[in-house]
Design goal:
Largest sheet: none
Distance between the termini: 74 Å
Shape: extended
Order of helices and strands: HHHHHHHHHHHHHHHHH
Strand content: under 5%
Number of strands: 0
Length: 374
């Protein structure tokens, strides 16, 4: 440490004063209350000396300054014990900002825009003016809307129970660890990864008048003429339901396999000891245990059934079957809103009317799940 000496340096008193300063204490003459020695440092001089000592040997290059800043940051992080320092209350929300922006851009804004568009008479090739609730009044007075609504509700009522119970039974069968069971699991899941268009074209070939099913029926003399699977509105709707259930079996089977993996084996053992057979164990142990998953599957399948479009379009064509008798609400929205004379305002109004139906199933599933948990 550099030392600043005065005239008294070299004397015994000067050495004592320098030693006192080296220990960070005032000179002895100052402590004794007398006048400061001739070579004693004033407080300002002492601060200058301290800064000089602190900067002595410091690396003042840019790399050295960066290293010191990194060391100070590491020291502050280490003081927290977690390695994270939140200087402002809004810091965590910065991490949520990208996700919230995506939700607002691709979900919230399209929804608001659809509601606003439903209040206009806009068309594909021109903008529209504000007409209030006229589109909603028109929809409620439109027979095509009510026919599509009935088809959508019927589709949901038939498809949802099938997609709740059939995948569960399938999952119970493929859950057993036997040789070759992996092949059956993969086979049941294959329709899920297949394109909906490919699946629709395959079923169209199977169900047409000269297709596989009608050919077999005619050869076995089960029918005298081909069954109109694709040329009758009711049969077309039933055929689309079959395709939807067939494609969704493997998907929801995976849901149930995950739920069945959490069922304790001791429950089945206790039921077997009590004399319960396989059917009784299924209804007394399996069903109550996987009930929350059944509610989830029912909610998801109901929302999907209300939004069905591809099966109807591929099997029935652009008209939705003979006279449009198999149209669902999504099919009607597409049919009304597209084309050179597409009425986007009216299509948006039908979309808004479809929204409460899907919301009801979501809230119902949530309500039942809370009741089951309680």
């Amino acid at each position: 440490m550099s030392q600043i000496t005065g005239p008294g340096a070299g004397t015994g008193g000067g050495q004592d004063q320098n030693q006192d300063r080296a220990r960070g204490r005032e000179p002895r003459t100052a402590r004794s209350g007398g006048a400061p020695a001739a070579g004693a440092l004033r407080p300002a001089d002492h601060a200058v000396e301290h800064r000089a000592d602190r900067t002595a040997g410091r690396d003042e290059t840019p790399a050295g300054r960066r290293a010191r800043r990194a060391a100070r940051a590491a020291g502050r992080a280490g003081d927290t014990g977690t390695g994270l320092v939140h200087r402002n209350w809004w810091t965590p929300y910065l991490f949520l900002l990208p996700g919230l922006g995506m939700v607002a851009l691709f979900s919230l804004w399209p929804f608001v825009n659809t509601v606003v568009l439903s209040l206009t008479d806009a068309q594909i090739l021109r903008g529209g003016g504000f007409i209030g609730l006229d589109n909603y009044v028109r929809a409620l007075e439109d027979d095509a809307f009510w026919e599509a609504l009935v088809n959508s509700v019927l589709y949901t009522v038939v498809v949802v129970p099938c997609l709740v119970f059939l995948p569960l039974a399938l999952a119970v069968l493929v859950q057993k660890r036997i040789p070759g069971i992996g092949f059956f699991r993969s086979a049941f899941y294959t329709p899920v990864i297949a394109s909906a268009v490919v699946v629709g074209l395959i079923w169209q070939w199977i169900l047409r008048s000269d297709g596989l099913v009608n050919t077999v029926f005619l050869k076995l003399r089960l029918v005298s003429e081909p069954v109109p699977f694709l040329t009758d509105s009711t049969m077309l709707l039933v055929s689309a339901m079959i395709v939807t259930v067939w494609k969704g079996l493997g998907y929801y089977m995976v849901f149930y396999l995950a739920a069945l993996g959490n069922v304790p084996a001791s429950l089945y053992e206790a039921a077997a000891i009590d004399g319960a057979g396989p059917v009784r164990r299924f209804f007394s142990v399996t069903v109550p245990t996987v009930k929350p998953m059944m509610l989830l599957v029912g909610t998801l399948s109901a929302i999907s059934a209300l939004r069905v479009f591809t099966e109807i379009f591929i099997l029935g064509g652009e008209s939705g079957g003979p006279g449009g008798g198999a149209r669902t609400l999504p099919f009607m929205i597409r049919q009304v809103g597209l084309g050179f004379a597409g009425e986007t305002g009216y299509a948006a109004a039908v979309s808004v009317l479809l929204f409460p139906m899907t919301l009801v199933f979501s809230l119902l599933g949530r309500r039942l799940s809370k009741g089951d948990e309680s």
